[in-house]
């Protein structure tokens, strides 16, 4: 813990930690030492972690990297963080992210962007660590902590993991409790660990997940000992290669890496099968209707009355002015865009044409996966992202759709509620890390982690 706290002090330029909690960390570390001495060391005992700013941490600022939650210190602890602390984990501080987890580059944060510790060859230009869990990815990649929490609504664990050469798993929807995690799109949001390798991911995930009666979508299933399932034996497993993920214009390097991953799994004894997920091309538009719709509803609570920021009113201004001014000042441009898109697709005149249509297509996307798994496929291998990390500012000022295209391989997994993991798979010719994604059957994170372990 002390080594991490020192490293964090020297790494402000990365912008990974937005709120440091050294006193809490040292107190938790001392308690962990005492537990070890008593011979009662649970799985996370004494492990220093960073916590994404989307998790409510009791008495500690939790702002979802938004101006509207300025000054908000929750009265309660999220289920995931409280389980981690019960298992002995140590909190070093809160980690940077895109505002309300909306983004793929950590550039929508009210705190400013986080920076990727990697560079292109000898080029000094700063790169994005990805998003929305950019601070988490940057902190783990730069050894500021041993693991971090992330959340993934459309790829926010897996894309930043791929951009920074680390491992990140989004479990099956319902595996981790959403209680106390600031909501973005409730039917898609899932928490998960971001770690150095698959074994660490197995250990941290085991501590994060489990049934929680306070989240009605949390599933009451036993949590297996994921770590003990890492045998590396994948003989006889069927790995699907979805043909629709081979996209036009994808860099040849990513194609080559994907083939290399396939060959590694084949050499380890897996059977490779070509599969089709025909509705893949509708995934991005479907996601960018459903996620903003749910966000516009979830974000309605930030009205200047109950939490955080409240605008100062001029004399004669009333409560409607207060709502309007507060929201205009407190939300950044990307969040405002999502709220507008969301209210539009949910409005009486357009509900059927957009929101309801998107829900139907979501079912078709889910069915594609069910059909693939029904033919005996155990896991699906795809690239994690369509490119390596890009430069800060490169996409932020472009058409927002360019940024949304980052999610092309990851959003399908959230729409279908499946577990997905990104593992480092090699470097591109500029020396930047690239990731491969494995998608598993629902509730089979143990098997998925084991297949990923064989790719390491
Ligand atoms: N980049 C996607 C978005 O902006 C995904 C974000 C996430 O997974 N939280 O919505």
UniProtKB/TrEMBL annotation:
Amidase domain segment(s): 1-449
Pfam families reported for this sequence: Amidase
GO biological process, one term: translation
Catalytic activity, EC: 6.3.5.7
Keyword Nucleotide-binding found: yes
Job description of the protein: Allows the formation of correctly charged Gln-tRNA(Gln) through the transamidation of misacylated Glu-tRNA(Gln) in organisms which lack glutaminyl-tRNA synthetase. The reaction takes place in the presence of glutamine and ATP through an activated gamma-phospho-Glu-tRNA(Gln).
Protein known as: Glutamyl-tRNA(Gln) amidotransferase subunit A
Organism: Salipiger aestuarii
């Amino acid at each position: 813990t002390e080594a991490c706290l020192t490293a964090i002090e020297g790494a402000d330029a990365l912008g990974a930690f937005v709120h440091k909690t050294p006193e809490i960390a040292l107190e938790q570390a001392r308690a962990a030492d005492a537990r070890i001495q008593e011979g009662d060391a649970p799985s996370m005992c004494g492990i220093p972690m960073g916590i994404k700013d989307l998790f409510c941490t009791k008495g500690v600022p939790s702002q979802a990297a938004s101006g509207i939650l300025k000054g908000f210190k929750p009265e309660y602890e999220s289920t995931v963080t409280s389980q981690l602390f019960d298992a002995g984990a140590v909190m070093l501080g809160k980690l940077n992210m895109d505002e309300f987890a909306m983004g793929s580059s950590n550039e929508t944060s009210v705190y400013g962007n986080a920076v990727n510790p990697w560079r292109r060859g000898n080029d000094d230009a700063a790169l994005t660590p990805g998003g929305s869990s950019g601070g988490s990815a940057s902190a783990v990649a730069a050894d500021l902590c041993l693991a971090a929490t992330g959340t993934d609504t459309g790829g926010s664990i897996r894309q930043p993991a791929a951009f920074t050469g680390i491992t990140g798993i989004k479990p099956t929807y319902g595996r981790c409790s959403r209680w106390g995690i600031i909501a973005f799109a409730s039917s898609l949001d899932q928490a998960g660990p971001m770690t150095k390798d698959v074994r660490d991911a197995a250990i941290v995930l085991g501590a994060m997940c489990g049934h929680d009666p306070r989240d009605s979508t949390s599933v009451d299933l036993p949590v297996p000992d994921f770590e003990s399932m890492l045998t590396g034996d994948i003989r006889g497993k069927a790995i699907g290669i979805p043909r629709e993920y081979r996209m036009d214009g994808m860099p040849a390097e990513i194609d080559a890496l994907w083939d290399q991953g396939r060959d590694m799994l084949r050499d380890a004894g897996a059977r490779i099968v070509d599969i089709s997920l025909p509705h893949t091309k509708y995934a991005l538009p479907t996601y960018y209707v459903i996620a903003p719709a749910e966000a516009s509803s979830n974000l309605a609570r930030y009205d200047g009355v109950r939490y955080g920021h409240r605008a100062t009113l001029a004399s004669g201004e009333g409560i409607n002015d207060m709502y309007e001014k507060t929201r205009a000042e407190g939300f950044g441009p990307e969040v405002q865009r999502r709220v507008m898109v969301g209210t539009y697709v949910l409005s009486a005149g357009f509900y059927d044409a957009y929101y309801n249509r998107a829900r139907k297509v979501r079912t078709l996307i889910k069915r594609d996966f069910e059909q693939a798994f029904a033919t005996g496929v155990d896991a699906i291998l795809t690239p994690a992202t369509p490119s390596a990390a890009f430069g800060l500012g490169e996409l932020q000022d472009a058409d927002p759709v360019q940024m949304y295209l980052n999610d092309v391989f990851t959003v399908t997994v959230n729409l279908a509620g499946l577990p997905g993991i990104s593992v480092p798979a090699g470097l591109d010719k500029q020396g930047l890390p690239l990731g491969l994604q494995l998608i598993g059957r629902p509730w089979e994170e143990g098997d998925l982690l084991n297949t990923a372990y064989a790719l390491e």
